[in-house]
Amino acid sequence: LFEGWCVGLLSPSPPWRMVSALTAAGILSTCPVALSSTILRVPVLARYFSRLESTVARRQWAERAAAPICSRYSHALIELLSSVKRSLRICEGESPLGPVRVDAATPLPLVSNSLSSDCGSWEWNDGWISSNAGWEVWTGFVDIMEVEWKPPSRSIVRTLMDGGEGPPLLREGCTVVRGNDWDNRDDADNEDGKDEYDEEKSAKEEEKRAADEEKKKKQKDSKRRLSEGDKEIDPAEDDDPANDEDPANDNDSACEVDQAKGEGSPELPHDEPDEPPSDTAASSGNEADEPNENEDGDLCDLESTKKKKKLATPKLPTGTVLSIEPWGGIPAMARRVRWHRTGKEGVYRYGGNGGRFDLVHVETNDKNTRVKKKHPPPESLEQCAARYGFGKRRKCNVILRLSNRKHANADNTDTFCDGIMEWPDFGAGVLVECTIYSDGAVAIKEKRLLYGSKDSGWETRFGQPSYVPGSEFVILPTLNEDTMSSHEELLGDSTFLVKDLRKKEDGGRVRVTSELHLYRGKGWKVNSGDITDGLNLSAVSPMQSPLICFDSEFHASSFSLSKDKRTVTCLAADGRGIAYGNVGFTKGVHYWEVKLEKAEIGSVYIGVAEKPESTSGGFETQPRLNRWLGWGFVNFRATYSAGVERVYGAHCHAGDTVGVLLDCDAGRISYFFDGVKYGEHILNDLGCAFENVSPFGFNADGCGNGGAGQGAPSGVDGGRNSRYPANGAVRPKAMWPVIGLRHPGDRVTMSAKCMSSHGIDAFTVMKNSLAVDEILCSYEREYEPQIPV
């Protein structure tokens, strides 16, 4: 019975899967041994249960906007997983649950969350409480230096592929000839027979040229004789019918016509003259080559009427691809070819050594004497990486969150902790291990990707689409001449040797150098004292630097920033200018405040936005920031997004403060007002302004309107009455704090009051649900009534 209902879990219908999960969970609670026999009998169900935890976690994360409420479908999956866990505790055996595998739109758990904290609260440990406590937050940027190589030219193949005319794959059995880089090889030779082909082709062209010259000469002579014959013939005699009966005249005319054509009669064999030979000529074979004289004395050259034997058209020096081979350790960058003219074999580059092509993919006719089509070479790895910005200098903002729980080693000289390195430009977060040395140096090593796309978008860092773990930065404190500054700078660098890219000029490896600049509060240290091995320590920073300020390189040209980058002023009226913050957020809950120093009604825009691409579609130029982007609040009691305004909030004047609450997990943006109204200082929650704007999207079918549910306008296209998308983001985006100003003299300041929390993850929610089930099961066993025998 359990096996039959488990088959319903494979149904494409979500309602039927829900019914099957609830029924199967009830049967398994009654008969725990049914699980082991089912997974042994049906391999398909064994694979389903191996990914059950991943399925539940993905569904929990998709419904995070409605927490703590969940759907009936999610409840059924939790019931089934709880029954499976209960069965494994009761019946000994191998667990069918496999490793956790989720998509880029579902964050993985942070292992260090299981550590205890000074707050003494499991809610804080799991991320339910939004607070700066427990985390030491450092902000900064990574400066990816320009690569020392000659950038490859842009390939035309991308344009052809967009039009559906890209080159086919050069696979086994395809025909090739030598390419443009044939002579750039170290062992360049004539193994394809190209030199012999050139000699035969030259002889053929010489023969054709001689034949053309002879033909022109004969045509010239024929025209001359015809013109001379017209002058000697009397018109009266030309009309005489007796002339038509003279066979000699017919033969003479035929001879002249043949000479005008430059070739003999096609019906005759190539070794016979145009007219019958005499008896003497018939008796002597060698006299057939001698000229014959017509009745009027003109000579017909018999050799001109013969069909000469022409040279055969030479065969092209082509070869056939036998197999696809690696080159320099990079797979599929070469081809093994056998050449038809010489029979030799060899391995030749087809994209290797930085985009060298020793071969060209062609299509020939059946006789292999003419090329019908010549395919362009495909886009090389170097060209593809350069198209996505690799090799150019780029600045990427980062946030480093260090756990406040540190572990000292045996001699109390070094300290270890876990953390998260957030890369907003890539929409990703990386688990890092940090080692804090006694001399102040900090070593940061990237371990694995917690969230974000692992298979696309990383060309600027690694020269390939996929993420590569293991990068390590060693940063040291620098001397800061500004004694009044509230933070100190740490500087370090890291190098990365790209695996699959090569320099075209010499075939050498490509190296990427990155400089890491981080800023932390002055006086940062780890509490010392009587420390034993394995004791947890807490990090303290008595002078916390502001988390959010403005980006000095990403604002409108009409804006001016203060020295501390916390105040922005509009200097000229150049549209609706906008300024971006120095950090972006992909996950968690974040709050910051903006004070209006000087502003007119309707001239200040406060919100969040994604960073736009450049107008040229590449990474060379920065886009013009002369319009308000993203989702935000305008200080004349309205929200603004993509040119659409909606009444919301309250009027804000100079001196007022506006708070912004960005919940990336739930996908909501809310605002708070702190100012004076009617002579009274008030604090007001303006409510939810936008929803369904999660950087991750909502990545499960059947989630309905995703993050909508509070009546606020949706942040995606479609409006309130349209269908909301319920698909997860393949590459999660990042939300950046933005400020927009319109009139000259407008000025706002980013307050030092801010809060940033990493938030929760789906595995934490699933773990808590399973813990509740385990507690209830323990309670039931403890108070189970004793049945007398």
Gyration radius, in Å: 41 Å
The biggest sheet amounts to:
8 strands, antiparallel, barrel
Please state the average pLDDT score.
79
SS-derived structural category: alpha+beta
Kindly estimate the percentage of residues that lie in beta strands according to DSSP.
25-35%
Give the overall shape: globular
Beginning-to-end CA distance, first to last residue: 31 Å
Q: State the helix count.
A: 17
Q: In percent, how helical is the residue content? A: 10-25%
Strand order of the largest sheet: 1-10-12-13-14-15-16-17
What is the quaternary state of this protein?
single chain
Model regions low in confidence, pLDDT < 50 over at least 5 residues = 112-117, 235-305, 527-543, 615-619, 718-727, 785-789
Tell me the number of strands: 34
Protein described:
By secondary structure, the chain is α+β, with helices and mostly antiparallel strands. It is built from 17 helices and 34 strands. The strands form six sheets. The protein has an eight-stranded antiparallel barrel. Strands 21-24-33-26-27-28-29 form a seven-stranded antiparallel β-sheet, with no helix packed on it. It has a seven-stranded antiparallel β-sheet with strand order 22-23-34-25-30-31-32, with no helix packed on it. The radius of gyration is 41 Å and the shape is globular. The two termini are 31 Å apart.
Quick summary:
With 789 residues, the protein is α+β, with helices and mostly antiparallel strands. The protein is built from 17 helices and 34 strands.
